[in-house]
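Hi there,

I know you've been waiting on this one. I reran it after we fixed the sequence typo, so this is the corrected version. Both the input and the resulting structure follow.
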Amino acid sequence: MPKADSPVDAAQDAPDAQDPPETSDAARRRRRAQFLRELAEARALRDRVQPRRAKAARLRHAMRMRTFRW
């Protein structure tokens, strides 16, 4: 007897499984936008809570951008 939460069952039960491609694409873009908003919010919170780590990350990013030539 297969488990109900196996990946195969989850893929079949997904709401986007029978949707037309443009609907599922729009839903995927909505979910991605929501995820990116939450990610940015989490980064901002982490930067406020850990300013030293945020400064180090900014400096690392600046160094990476400086060494990468466009």
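Quick highlight: The longest helix spans residues 21-49.

Best,
R. S.
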